[in-house]
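Supplementary notes for students who missed Thursday's class. We covered one full example, reproduced here. Read the sequence, then the structure, then the short commentary at the end.
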Amino acid sequence: MSRSKRDAWPDLSLLDLSPTLATLHLWSQVAGKIRLALTPWINQSWQVTLYLSARGLTTGLIPLGDRAFEFEFDLLDDRAVIRDTDGSAETIELVPRSVASFYAEVLAALKRLGIEVHIDAMPCEIEGAVPFHKDKVKRAYDGDVARSYWRALLQAHRVMQVFRTRFRGKCSPVHLFWGAFDLAVTRFSGRSAPPHPGGAINMPDDVAREAYCQEVSSAGFWPGGGPVTGPAFYSYAYAAPEGFGQYQVSPEAAYFDTTLGEFLLPYDAVQAADDPDDTLLSFLQTTYEAAVNLARWDREQLEGLTGPIGHPP
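Structure (token representation):
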């Protein structure tokens, strides 16, 4: 039996998300940094991201000479699996444990597969982090929480993919950046932007400057943190045009956070809506319009209709 669109969005309001997601965030950085170390650079760092899979999160194929391998967080079975194209595989259990023990098991598994890689063990974009091998505090991991959040990611990804089809200019995939652990999609005007100031924790400023070398309107889904309690959708512009934060957007639950410089929409407001898909699409569309109308992007050349399924528009 098919579920309604509303039923498909999991209710996260009663779950203690933070401990498990903080752990998964750090573990994802181990996988992401392995991909970073072995993959040729693609514009805007698109080569480093993770993707949703039918069982969790994956790096996709990572090149390795005449073979390749994949690192997947199988959240349905609470395990990380490293598979190579020769048919070999190694498994690491996802259980309450320290980051150091997870990191050590990953390195041992790679060694057994004959994969040599050297990574920077310092986590990126996380306040107060320590190198993976020195993070020996036992951390929480609840598989049910991880699966619930992943199912929310699946719904967010589906709607963000529909939103992406409406743009014919340069646009990123819908992908997950392990630095901030956010699912993101970014549209580009094609015009140069002022040099980005950088300043992200444990991330070279050159990375940010290359990522934001053109004007962008970016939106995504994030577990929250700091003053933002709970998961939320976000939308920002770089460089933000004058009046961006005062632009009228929808739905009513959306607001502009002056500290972050971003529009935010709590996940709970989407999940509780009569039509979550339309609620999220309204947020994505109106916050995008705030950026591009004020910055005067060439919308006629850059935009198109929502992409149909199975055939060209």
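Commentary. The first helix runs from residue 5 to 8. The first strand starts at residue 51 and ends at 52. If anything here is unclear, bring it to office hours.
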